[in-house]
Amino acid sequence: MSAEPDGPEDRLRRFATIWSRAVFPVTSTSSTRPEFEARLLPLARLLSEALRARSFDADAGRQAGAGLVREHCTDPEALSRTLDCVDAYLVLYCGEGGDREDLRARSARLQHAMAAGFAQALRERTLAEQEAIAQAALEAQGVVAQALHATEARFRAVFEGAAIGIGIADLEGNILQVNNALRRMFGLSEQGLRGRNVRDWVHPDDPPQTWRLYEELVSGEREHYHLEKAFYRPDGTVLWTNLTVSLLRDADGDPQYQLALMEDTTERRLLNLRLRYEATHDALTGLPNRTFFFERLEKALGAGEGQRFGLCYLDLDGFKTVNDSLGHAAGDRLLVEVADRLQACATAPGEMVARLGGDEFVALTTGPDTQRTVDELAARIMNALLAPISVDGRELTVRGSIGIVEGPAGERSPAEILRSADITMYRAKSAGGNRFELADPEADARAITRHGLTTALPTALDRGEFFIEYQPLVHLGDGSVRGAEALVRWLHPQHGVLSPDRFIPLAEHTGLIVPLGRWVLEQSVRQAREWQDRHGGAEALGPLRINVNLSPCQLTHPGLVQDTVDILERTGVEPDALCLEVTESALIGADDDLLKPLRRLAEMGVDIALDDFGTGYSNLANLRRLPVSVLKLDRSFTQSMQQFPADPVDLKIVEGIVSLAHSLDLAVTVEGVETGAQAEQLRILGCDTAQGWYYARPGPPDRLHELALVDATG
Fold it and tell me: How much is the pTM?
């Protein structure tokens, strides 16, 4: 077995070799097979570059299709073999390093473009040949006029030897002469054609202008016309032709005959129909594809006043598991069976089912009452998926999530409708799947906003759109400011100031939380250093500490400890001036590997605070193994203390937590303090520090410095 090609150029040449071997046997060329391969290589390179280009351009496929015609690959079988070769080998040999799904989609679009380019080039070539023949025929008009005198033999040679069908008729439409090519096209003898009248050949598919042009020609108002026309053969089959009819005048310039030139385009038309079908239908399931679906949707949206549409966007739940466990061949068989079931669900007038790609299908219903019919269609689809599907002897249970969009025609574009259906489908999937949901404009807007924020996050940090506000941490015993919690904000260009709950989950999902968290940590520690430098007159109270939140993603990042050490060393801040807050839920059931970086930081002198304590249902005894020095009591335990008297049950709970924490040598911080009565009650219960609107809302760092100075100077 030969070795696989090593580099991109080797792979490209291998693809060109396979291509040339497939096409060469059906090519009309005097070149040898290696010479033919060398001519295909530039076309292969064109397809390879288009496949891997940053921005896809289908024109490369059209150029490649036209290039086949230039290389004399005009047989329809050459195109069929080319498309099979591109489908099987282009991504394999020229798509290294790219996303397979995207490359397969691009390959399919290139195949469609190649087919279009091939058909267009073949048509242009045929028209050029026809023009040459027509020119020869027009020149033969003089021969016809002079045939009575001396040169009839010359005309006869051209007339009978032409590969294109030629017929001559009088101005009444009676056929006078036909050549061999025309007789073969109709499958009739000369006697069977001569004597017939042109007007007998009316066909239902005639363009509206056909007979108007004919009448203008025989009356002498025009010299010629050209159109595509169908004729019935005696056996009932249809002959499609490119027809050119010219007027022949006598020596005095009066109309005398009509000359028809016919090119048989039946095979080419069948090829175009086949290519059209392949371009608009899914190769695996036979369902209409995305292109066909959008054509139908656009037509439905332009149906006029009083018409409505309903769309069901289906995605199979857990289909990736089938591919991963049973293989893609089994997954394909599953998709074929699902497609058959969906097809059976959409049989009413105005209904259709299409496959958009992968395991995504869409069903469309149109008419004046789609508010009812779309719900019925979705219910039929869900019922059709209930019965298990047998694949390779296994009974597979198939479930799906459906997003439904319904509304009047003409109000939204196809892209907007499909986006809404996609968002709604994912809402159904996130709700547990195996269900359908109706589109909600408000939910769509939220999803679109989330997507916009997600895409804007990576550049927002580079553009300096984030800033930090600080909320004071106050000692409940003497009321002094002991530090602050750093709270990051996003100053979005369109949405204004966004709180962390709007973008921190998105940052965690995209991985941006690590660089963002590192930036927050460094800015906060630098600010702590500045406070210490400016707070020189209050040494007795100790340095102002800074509390910084850590997300679960940051806890698992291998650079957490080193980043923290580097920041402290660069700023000259002692470790005991920093407190890292970790939510209780992030540490529930944490193993030693997750706790190891926190233990290293705690050993350095950095305080670790267990944030939102009481919401994670953790075992209180578990606190002994956690490297924490501070408990931040969740505000839900202390809300009742805003009024007097406080709920005695809450008082007992807080008292117990404080007693347990102090017995474990842990300080207790309370968040969400909003009244003086609440603060006093917490002080009596033994809590150490607090933060909340009672003391100050989050704000700029200078305000904290001012509060600290007021406390220090009394």
Answer: 0.52
